[in-house]
Design brief:
Carboxyvinyl-carboxyphosphonate phosphorylmutase, 2 domains, 44% helix, 10 helices
């Protein structure tokens, strides 16, 4: 089953977000059907803040190592594309395509001092040009377009999200990703209004997978939640080592 087809099943695609070879191998061993990278997790692993602060060549190296160690379809979080110029974004995608990626995420916000939402029509034009040039190059890359209306809690976010879904659909998106969308009524409304598969992300109040299936969600991802959880556990364990002057905490509840 192709990566595109995984978005058409009755049950949502559960995408495991990874950041290195080890997390990738674990995801594949546990039976996940596809993986996606988390830009925030990779950036943190390399000592950067999220928001295209690491160099693109550094991202490419991590993607190559992941791709070389899995047979699963791989989607890459490209943030805003590492450029604001469509031809440069396409060139970046082509560079990643060398490693056999199946999809990418592109988002409609950028980070300078803080994250801001870009104009929807302008971003739709970028999507259209990117999709057209990928088609010309005969590259079948799933474009999962992320809108940060809920991340940034913009005014009238439900209506604004619906407008952006329509703009991005017309521009050539293959899927719509709405992180921080978790309320059932909003999910149902947006799924009903969308012609494309909707992707939601792990949140404390996100409904369970069976409920999301009934609501029509087609893809569920994790963002950097798993990485952040593991980092918090590492901090806790190391703190216990220093506090207790003992390694007992490392081996308590250990599965090693």
């Amino acid at each position: 089953m192709t990566f595109n087809e995984l978005h058409k099943n009755s049950y949502p695609l559960i995408l495991c977000n990874v950041w290195d070879v080890n997390s990738t191998k674990i995801a594949e061993k546990l039976g996940f059907q596809a993986i996606g990278t988390s830009s925030a997790a990779i950036a943190c692993m390399l000592g950067y803040e999220d928001g295209e602060k690491m160099q693109f060549k550094e991202l490419c190296y991590v993607i190559q190592r992941i791709a070389d160690n899995t047979s699963l379809p791989l989607s890459v979080d490209m943030e805003a594309g590492y450029s604001r110029i469509p031809t440069e974004i396409v060139n970046n995608i082509k560079e990643l395509a060398i490693y056999g990626i199946a999809g990418i995420n592109l988002e409609d916000s950028i980070v300078n001092e803080e994250r801001i939402l870009v104009d929807g029509k302008s971003f739709a034009n970028i999507i259209h040009e990117v999709k057209s040039k990928l088609n010309e190059a005969n590259l079948n890359i799933f474009l999962n377009i992320r809108t940060d209306t809920y991340v940034l809690n913009v005014p009238n976010k439900l209506d604004e999200t619906q407008k952006r879904i329509e703009l991005y659909t017309q521009a050539g998106a293959d899927g719509i990703f709405i992180p921080c969308l978790s309320h059932e009524s909003d999910i149902k409304f947006l799924v009903d209004k969308s012609r494309l598969p909707i992707n939601v992300m792990a949140m404390p109040d996100l409904p369970g997978f069976e409920k999301l299936k009934k609501l029509g969600i087609k893809r569920i991802s994790m963002g950097d939640c798993l990485f952040s959880n593991m980092s918090a556990m590492l901090k806790h364990k190391l703190g216990k080592v220093m506090d207790n002057q003992s390694f007992n905490a490392i081996f308590s509840d250990s599965k090693c």
